[in-house]
Amino acid sequence: MHSVHNSNTFVWYFNKIDRFFADIIGAKNYIPYVEKVTMIAEWSYHATPLVRQYQNKLRYFWDLRNQLVHGFSLEKNHYVIASNYAVEQIKQIYALLTTPKTAFEVFGREVYICSLNDSLLEVIEMMRADRNTHVPVYNDAWEFVEMLSESTIAYWIAESNHGSLLIDKSVCVSAVTLENSNDTFAFIDKDKNVYEVQELFWKATLEKKRLWALFISEDWTHNTPIVWIITALDLPKLASMSIL
Fold first, then answer.
1. In what order do the strands lie in the sheet with 109-110?
2. Comparing 144 with 181, which gets the higher pLDDT?
Protein backbone atom coordinates (compact mmCIF):
# COMPACT_ATOMS: atom_id res chain seq x y z
CA MET A 1 0.00 0.00 0.00
CA HIS A 2 2.92 2.29 0.73
CA SER A 3 4.19 1.96 -2.84
CA VAL A 4 0.72 2.69 -4.24
CA HIS A 5 0.50 5.79 -2.07
CA ASN A 6 3.90 6.93 -3.36
CA SER A 7 2.80 6.46 -6.95
CA ASN A 8 -0.45 8.35 -6.40
CA THR A 9 1.43 11.17 -4.70
CA PHE A 10 3.94 11.37 -7.54
CA VAL A 11 1.20 11.54 -10.18
CA TRP A 12 -0.64 14.21 -8.17
CA TYR A 13 2.45 16.45 -8.06
CA PHE A 14 3.17 15.76 -11.72
CA ASN A 15 -0.30 16.94 -12.68
CA LYS A 16 0.19 20.07 -10.57
CA ILE A 17 3.44 20.84 -12.40
CA ASP A 18 1.79 20.16 -15.76
CA ARG A 19 -1.01 22.64 -14.99
CA PHE A 20 1.52 25.15 -13.68
CA PHE A 21 3.41 24.99 -16.99
CA ALA A 22 0.16 25.40 -18.93
CA ASP A 23 -0.66 28.53 -16.92
CA ILE A 24 2.81 29.98 -17.52
CA ILE A 25 2.57 29.75 -21.31
CA GLY A 26 -1.13 30.60 -21.36
CA ALA A 27 -2.09 27.38 -23.12
CA LYS A 28 -5.72 27.40 -24.23
CA ASN A 29 -5.51 24.04 -25.98
CA TYR A 30 -3.81 20.78 -25.07
CA ILE A 31 -0.03 20.84 -25.35
CA PRO A 32 1.98 17.74 -24.39
CA TYR A 33 3.94 18.10 -21.20
CA VAL A 34 7.35 17.62 -22.84
CA GLU A 35 6.55 20.35 -25.35
CA LYS A 36 5.68 22.72 -22.53
CA VAL A 37 9.01 21.95 -20.86
CA THR A 38 10.82 22.71 -24.12
CA MET A 39 8.89 25.94 -24.69
CA ILE A 40 9.58 27.25 -21.21
CA ALA A 41 13.26 26.25 -21.35
CA GLU A 42 13.81 27.93 -24.72
CA TRP A 43 11.68 31.05 -24.28
CA SER A 44 11.71 33.69 -21.55
CA TYR A 45 9.42 33.15 -18.58
CA HIS A 46 10.06 33.72 -14.89
CA ALA A 47 10.46 29.94 -14.48
CA THR A 48 12.76 29.53 -17.50
CA PRO A 49 16.09 29.46 -15.59
CA LEU A 50 14.82 26.81 -13.19
CA VAL A 51 13.21 24.68 -15.92
CA ARG A 52 16.40 24.92 -17.96
CA GLN A 53 18.44 23.80 -14.97
CA TYR A 54 16.24 20.78 -14.20
CA GLN A 55 14.81 19.98 -17.62
CA ASN A 56 16.35 16.49 -17.84
CA LYS A 57 14.75 15.55 -14.54
CA LEU A 58 11.45 17.15 -15.55
CA ARG A 59 11.45 15.11 -18.76
CA TYR A 60 12.13 11.93 -16.82
CA PHE A 61 9.14 12.71 -14.60
CA TRP A 62 7.03 12.42 -17.77
CA ASP A 63 8.41 8.92 -18.49
CA LEU A 64 7.83 7.77 -14.94
CA ARG A 65 4.33 9.23 -14.84
CA ASN A 66 3.41 7.34 -18.03
CA GLN A 67 4.70 4.09 -16.55
CA LEU A 68 2.75 4.65 -13.35
CA VAL A 69 -0.49 5.56 -15.13
CA HIS A 70 -0.35 3.43 -18.26
CA GLY A 71 2.33 0.88 -17.45
CA PHE A 72 1.85 -2.86 -17.50
CA SER A 73 0.19 -4.46 -14.47
CA LEU A 74 -0.63 -8.06 -13.80
CA GLU A 75 -3.08 -9.39 -11.23
CA LYS A 76 -3.41 -5.90 -9.77
CA ASN A 77 0.33 -5.69 -9.13
CA HIS A 78 2.31 -2.84 -10.68
CA TYR A 79 5.71 -3.53 -12.18
CA VAL A 80 6.83 0.10 -11.69
CA ILE A 81 6.37 2.15 -8.53
CA ALA A 82 7.54 5.58 -7.41
CA SER A 83 10.33 5.43 -4.87
CA ASN A 84 10.52 7.65 -1.81
CA TYR A 85 13.34 9.50 -3.56
CA ALA A 86 11.22 10.16 -6.67
CA VAL A 87 8.38 11.56 -4.56
CA GLU A 88 10.74 13.77 -2.58
CA GLN A 89 12.34 15.10 -5.76
CA ILE A 90 9.10 16.02 -7.49
CA LYS A 91 7.83 17.66 -4.29
CA GLN A 92 10.94 19.81 -4.01
CA ILE A 93 10.95 20.82 -7.67
CA TYR A 94 7.25 21.69 -7.47
CA ALA A 95 8.02 23.92 -4.48
CA LEU A 96 10.93 25.57 -6.28
CA LEU A 97 8.79 26.21 -9.34
CA THR A 98 5.76 27.62 -7.56
CA THR A 99 7.39 29.44 -4.64
CA PRO A 100 11.02 30.13 -5.55
CA LYS A 101 13.01 32.18 -3.10
CA THR A 102 13.63 35.71 -4.27
CA ALA A 103 17.12 37.04 -4.72
CA PHE A 104 16.25 39.57 -2.05
CA GLU A 105 15.61 36.77 0.47
CA VAL A 106 18.71 34.73 -0.35
CA PHE A 107 21.37 37.21 -1.37
CA GLY A 108 20.18 40.61 -0.25
CA ARG A 109 22.38 42.55 2.09
CA GLU A 110 22.58 46.19 2.93
CA VAL A 111 24.57 48.22 0.45
CA TYR A 112 27.16 50.79 1.39
CA ILE A 113 26.81 54.11 -0.43
CA CYS A 114 28.95 57.21 -0.45
CA SER A 115 28.82 60.82 -1.57
CA LEU A 116 31.08 62.77 -3.89
CA ASN A 117 32.47 64.63 -0.87
CA ASP A 118 33.42 61.54 1.14
CA SER A 119 37.06 60.72 1.71
CA LEU A 120 38.24 58.35 -1.00
CA LEU A 121 40.63 56.65 1.42
CA GLU A 122 37.85 55.95 3.92
CA VAL A 123 35.63 54.52 1.18
CA ILE A 124 38.46 52.27 -0.02
CA GLU A 125 39.02 51.02 3.53
CA MET A 126 35.32 50.19 3.81
CA MET A 127 35.38 48.38 0.45
CA ARG A 128 38.28 46.25 1.62
CA ALA A 129 36.69 45.45 4.96
CA ASP A 130 33.29 44.51 3.50
CA ARG A 131 34.61 42.98 0.25
CA ASN A 132 32.62 45.45 -1.83
CA THR A 133 33.64 45.83 -5.45
CA HIS A 134 31.12 48.56 -6.36
CA VAL A 135 29.83 51.50 -4.34
CA PRO A 136 26.97 53.73 -5.55
CA VAL A 137 27.89 57.41 -5.43
CA TYR A 138 25.38 60.18 -4.67
CA ASN A 139 25.58 63.95 -4.97
CA ASP A 140 24.64 66.53 -2.34
CA ALA A 141 20.95 66.17 -3.24
CA TRP A 142 21.27 62.42 -2.70
CA GLU A 143 20.73 61.68 -6.36
CA PHE A 144 22.56 58.73 -7.87
CA VAL A 145 25.59 59.87 -9.89
CA GLU A 146 27.58 56.83 -11.02
CA MET A 147 29.46 53.87 -9.57
CA LEU A 148 32.81 53.79 -7.79
CA SER A 149 34.54 50.47 -8.46
CA GLU A 150 37.85 48.77 -7.84
CA SER A 151 38.82 49.24 -11.48
CA THR A 152 38.08 52.99 -11.49
CA ILE A 153 40.16 53.41 -8.34
CA ALA A 154 43.04 51.43 -9.84
CA TYR A 155 42.87 53.49 -13.02
CA TRP A 156 42.86 56.73 -11.03
CA ILE A 157 45.91 55.63 -9.02
CA ALA A 158 47.77 54.73 -12.20
CA GLU A 159 46.84 57.88 -14.10
CA SER A 160 46.46 60.61 -11.51
CA ASN A 161 48.51 59.49 -8.55
CA HIS A 162 51.61 58.53 -10.54
CA GLY A 163 51.31 54.94 -9.45
CA SER A 164 51.65 55.76 -5.78
CA LEU A 165 49.52 53.72 -3.42
CA LEU A 166 49.55 56.54 -0.87
CA ILE A 167 46.26 58.44 -0.92
CA ASP A 168 45.79 61.58 1.10
CA LYS A 169 42.72 61.60 3.34
CA SER A 170 41.72 64.96 1.89
CA VAL A 171 41.14 63.43 -1.55
CA CYS A 172 37.41 63.08 -2.19
CA VAL A 173 35.51 60.51 -4.23
CA SER A 174 34.80 63.26 -6.77
CA ALA A 175 38.48 63.13 -7.80
CA VAL A 176 37.92 59.75 -9.46
CA THR A 177 36.39 59.32 -12.90
CA LEU A 178 33.41 57.17 -11.98
CA GLU A 179 32.15 54.13 -13.82
CA ASN A 180 29.07 54.51 -15.98
CA SER A 181 29.19 51.21 -17.87
CA ASN A 182 26.08 49.10 -17.42
CA ASP A 183 28.17 46.04 -18.25
CA THR A 184 29.48 45.80 -14.69
CA PHE A 185 26.35 46.61 -12.70
CA ALA A 186 22.58 46.64 -13.13
CA PHE A 187 19.39 47.46 -11.25
CA ILE A 188 16.81 44.71 -10.71
CA ASP A 189 13.38 44.04 -9.26
CA LYS A 190 13.54 42.82 -5.66
CA ASP A 191 11.07 40.06 -6.57
CA LYS A 192 13.34 38.41 -9.14
CA ASN A 193 13.93 34.83 -8.08
CA VAL A 194 17.35 33.36 -7.43
CA TYR A 195 17.40 31.46 -10.72
CA GLU A 196 16.68 34.61 -12.73
CA VAL A 197 19.56 36.33 -10.97
CA GLN A 198 21.84 33.38 -11.66
CA GLU A 199 20.89 33.60 -15.32
CA LEU A 200 21.73 37.31 -15.48
CA PHE A 201 25.29 36.55 -14.37
CA TRP A 202 25.46 33.55 -16.71
CA LYS A 203 24.31 35.58 -19.74
CA ALA A 204 26.79 38.32 -18.92
CA THR A 205 29.58 35.74 -18.92
CA LEU A 206 28.48 34.39 -22.31
CA GLU A 207 28.43 37.93 -23.69
CA LYS A 208 31.91 38.50 -22.25
CA LYS A 209 30.69 41.21 -19.90
CA ARG A 210 32.06 41.63 -16.39
CA LEU A 211 28.85 41.87 -14.40
CA TRP A 212 29.91 42.29 -10.77
CA ALA A 213 26.93 43.70 -8.95
CA LEU A 214 23.15 43.86 -9.03
CA PHE A 215 21.44 46.59 -7.05
CA ILE A 216 17.90 46.48 -5.71
CA SER A 217 15.94 49.70 -5.28
CA GLU A 218 12.29 50.36 -4.67
CA ASP A 219 11.48 51.09 -8.32
CA TRP A 220 14.20 48.88 -9.92
CA THR A 221 16.13 51.96 -11.10
CA HIS A 222 18.61 54.46 -9.71
CA ASN A 223 15.81 56.99 -9.21
CA THR A 224 15.10 55.73 -5.69
CA PRO A 225 17.62 54.83 -2.96
CA ILE A 226 19.52 51.59 -3.46
CA VAL A 227 18.81 49.33 -0.49
CA TRP A 228 20.37 45.95 -1.28
CA ILE A 229 23.27 44.54 -3.27
CA ILE A 230 23.95 41.14 -4.86
CA THR A 231 27.42 40.33 -6.16
CA ALA A 232 28.94 37.54 -8.19
CA LEU A 233 30.56 36.37 -4.94
CA ASP A 234 27.08 35.52 -3.61
CA LEU A 235 26.35 32.93 -6.30
CA PRO A 236 27.97 29.96 -4.50
CA LYS A 237 25.05 30.17 -2.06
CA LEU A 238 22.94 28.57 -4.79
CA ALA A 239 24.98 25.39 -4.53
CA SER A 240 23.72 24.81 -1.00
CA MET A 241 20.15 25.13 -2.29
CA SER A 242 20.59 22.52 -5.04
CA ILE A 243 18.53 19.36 -4.73
CA LEU A 244 20.45 17.41 -7.36
1. 109-110, 226-231, 213-217, 185-188
2. 144
